[in-house]
Design a protein that fits this description.
With 124 residues, this protein is an alpha+beta fold. Helices cover 40% and strands 15% of the residues.
Length: 124
């Protein structure tokens, strides 16, 4: 009676940027990991509220959670994060003039647990 249900899902990441979401979904698809996206349509309808709504939660089957965490541990989002360029500053000033909120610049949050240690052991 204590067996877990086969349809149990675990959250492995919260994503706040559409480009990060697209990259992660393509990574999971290439590894044949099914991903349930919670809040994706809220973020699509009102992208300025993505941070307030908690981002898009990426949930995977409990059996695939460790594999998903290994995929996330191999993903380095820092090359995609650049400093504020002059073009970005001008765009934000234009948005401020038009009274529109800027898009969120929050980095995705990963739930890795022991995946990093397991990856380091596998490499060593």
């Amino acid at each position: 009676m204590s067996e877990a249900a086969p349809d149990r899902f675990e959250t492995v990441a919260w994503v706040y940027d559409p480009s990060d979401l697209a990259l992660l979904l393509s990574l999971f698809e290439s590894e044949d990991i099914f991903v349930l996206q919670i809040g994706r349509f809220h973020a699509a309808v009102e992208p300025n509220l993505t941070t307030a709504l908690g981002g898009v939660a990426l949930r995977v089957h409990a059996e695939d959670a460790d594999d998903a965490r290994l995929v996330l541990a191999s993903f380095d989002p820092s090359p995609f994060r650049e400093g504020l360029s002059l073009q970005f500053v001008v765009l934000m000033l234009l948005l401020l003039v038009l009274l529109a909120a800027p898009p969120p610049r929050q980095a995705p949050t990963f739930v890795l647990r022991g995946a990093v240690a397991a990856r380091r052991e596998a490499v060593a």
